[in-house]
Every structure is written in structure tokens, then in C-alpha cells.
Design brief:
The chain has 83 residues and is an all-alpha fold. Helices cover 86% and strands 0% of the residues. It starts with a helix and ends in an 8-residue tail after the last helix.
Length: 83
């Protein structure tokens, strides 16, 4: 980005072009590149979040359900009726 800015400034100086347009163009291009980079990073974050949910949250919820079920069975006098 810095090289592109320097090259644009040199071209503007050499050809006598207005510097305002050059800087506005460079700023626009930099904003577009930054926006694209942020969107790419956000797209990469989705699968990482899904992995965390799958490996941490789902087993912990299943463990809580199993603990509640075990507590209900043990609290009702042993759970299974005698045959």
C-alpha cells in the first residue's frame, strides 16, 4: 500500500496531476482492500466458532442432561422397578 501510494505521488508530481484526486483514489482503494480483508477474516471465523460449539458446548449440555436424569432416577428410589 505504501509503495502504491509513493508511486501514485510520484506520477502526480511528474505529470502535474492534482494531488487531491490521487490521494482520494488511494484512500478509496485502501478502504476497499481493508473491507475485503475483514470480510475474508469474518468468513474464516464461522467454522472456528462451529468447532468450539461442537467440541465444548454440546458435550457439556449432554453432561448436564445426563446429570439431571441421574438425579431424577436416584431421587425416585433407585429408578428401575423390581421384577
Amino acid at each position: 500500500e505504501v509503495r502504491a501510494l509513493c508511486a501514485a505521488l510520484e506520477r502526480a508530481r511528474r505529470h502535474g496531476a492534482p494531488l487531491g484526486r490521487t490521494l482520494a483514489s488511494q484512500a478509496r482503494d485502501t478502504r476497499v482492500a481493508l473491507r475485503r480483508h475483514v470480510q475474508e477474516e469474518a468468513a474464516k471465523a464461522g467454522p472456528k466458532i462451529q468447532l468450539v460449539v461442537a467440541l465444548l458446548l454440546v458435550p457439556s449440555v449432554l453432561l448436564m442432561v445426563a446429570a439431571a436424569l441421574a438425579a431424577a432416577l436416584l431421587g425416585s428410589g433407585g429408578g428401575l422397578p423390581a421384577v
